[in-house]
Amino acid sequence: xxxxxxxxxxxxxxxxxxxxxxxxxxxxxxxxxxxxxxxxxxxxxxxxxxxxxxxxxxxxxxxxxxxxxxxxxxxxxxxxxxxxxxxxxxxxxxxxxxxxxxxxxxxxxxxxxxxxxxxxxxxxxxxxxxxxxxxxx
Length: 137
Known about the structure:
mainly beta; six-stranded antiparallel β-barrel; 3 helices
């Protein structure tokens, strides 16, 4: 639902305010991390949590994702859709990924959904910007 003072972009999409973007990212358990791997783009799903204005998730040391994240900028995307009403939203966070310090994640309740491998290392995305759009009908 569009608010009366909503900004509409050139494609007819509602531009979401940063705080609303953070609320939406926190409302969904799974997002997609985009990064460069072996010279090309890669996108993988991860379950995550929002801590303040950072995204955290778990990975395994030595994994493709772990190694790629620590060297280049990343994008993190979360969305929500309702096909029956043809409505939805999307939020993109761009920033840098770093190993999270223990104090950053000590109270975070997050078990990796893909549990075939121990994911003992935490990653924190330090956002440089966040933007979101909602389909306006």
